[in-house]
Automatic annotation (TrEMBL):
Keyword Transferase annotated: yes
Similarity remark: Belongs to the N(4)/N(6)-methyltransferase family.
Gene3D superfamilies in the cross-refs: Adenine-specific Methyltransferase, Domain 2 (1.10.1020.10), Vaccinia Virus protein VP39 (3.40.50.150)
Record's protein name: Site-specific DNA-methyltransferase (adenine-specific)
Molecular function GO terms recorded: S-adenosyl-L-methionine binding; sequence-specific DNA binding; site-specific DNA-methyltransferase (adenine-specific) activity
Biological processes, Gene Ontology terms: DNA restriction-modification system; methylation; mismatch repair
Length: 308
């Protein structure tokens, strides 16, 4: 029997699967009592929080947005064409697994080149069968690239190198079917976080997970799109949360890195989210480009409601 508890089907920098148990202590009472009608994520990414909450609560509406076109296109294909997607992934998985490492590398860079060529001509506004093949390449690259990263250069080209994996679970059929089920009520949008402004009302709960503010020069994972998410973007988001989300009476919970991991005097988030609740949770992250830099650090949760 199919397990309908979906989990992220893409690895995404800053994924929240490891934090779900801690988050449970900080959701609004309105959500815990089942009184939230509309769930909204302006920065969908891997979707760990969405998949968990969707399995626990019966939302009437779900709005999922991200600025990364390939990401939302892939979610759309899983939502609407999952069987055809699985067929293409099974072929890619078989081709990859049957080759030696030299062949695997050839397959990887061949698919990456095709993926980038498609990005230049693909119409992201009108569905076509090309979307299915593009989504399959997106998942394949995510499963076989270095460290499961999604990174673009200034030209908008995906440029993550080969991950040298002997084995890779490229086609997780059962989870893709579970994700398909989880997305049944979801409206998928491509664009800036302000894209979802008109959907926010007093019956909404927003989980806001922007690209994290880098702790140092080697821990930056903000290149999900051609447009960087810098400190000015963080300030614009904080202002939007204050002037739009809070003003409309919606509940929001926001995650970000904690600058105090490296500088106790850095009050960036305390300043821009002054007046809101700010707590720290523990996460295991890479804090620099070397594996030795992986360790337990604090991350911030910022929310506009009281916890009983």
């Amino acid at each position: 029997m199919l397990d309908l508890k979906a989990k992220p089907f893409l690895k995404w920098a800053g994924g929240k699967s490891q934090l779900l148990d801690q988050f449970q202590n900080y959701y609004p009472q309105k959500l815990l009592k089942g009184n939230v009608k509309r769930y909204i994520e302006p920065f969908l990414g891997g979707g760990a929080v969405f998949f968990y909450l969707q399995s626990q609560y019966n939302f009437e509406e779900i709005i999922l947005n991200d600025i990364n076109e390939e990401l939302i296109l892939t979610y759309y294909v899983v939502q609407n064409n999952v069987k055809e997607l699985i067929e293409q992934l099974e072929i890619l998985e078989s081709t990859y697994l049957e080759g030696d490492m030299i062949k695997k590398e050839e397959v990887y860079y061949g698919q990456r080149e095709l993926f980038n060529l498609e990005k230049k001509t693909l119409n992201y506004n009108v569905f076509s069968n090309e979307w299915i093949g593009h989504a399959a390449k997106m998942i394949f690259l995510n499963k076989t690239c270095f460290n499961g990263l999604y990174r673009q250069n200034k030209k908008g080209e995906y440029n993550v190198p080969f991950g040298k994996r002997k084995k890779a679970a490229i086609c997780d059929k059962d989870n893709l079917l579970a994700v398909n089920y989880a997305l049944k009520k979801a409206k998928l949008l491509i664009g800036d976080f302000e894209n979802i402004t008109n959907y926010v009302d007093e019956n909404s709960f927003l989980y806001i997970d922007p690209p994290y503010r880098p702790l140092n020069e080697t821990s930056s994972f903000t290149d999900y799109s051609k447009i960087p998410f810098d400190d000015e973007s963080q300030k614009r988001l904080a202002n939007w949360a204050r002037m739009v989300v809070d003003k409309k009476g919606a509940c929001f919970m926001l995650s970000n890195s904690d600058p105090k991991n490296v500088d106790q005097n850095d009050n960036f988030f305390e300043d821009i989210y002054k007046g809101y609740n700010i707590v720290r949770v523990k996460a295991t992250r890479n804090i620099n480009s070397k594996g030795s830099g992986r360790g337990e650090i604090n991350e911030l949760l910022i929310f506009n409601y009281d916890i009983i």
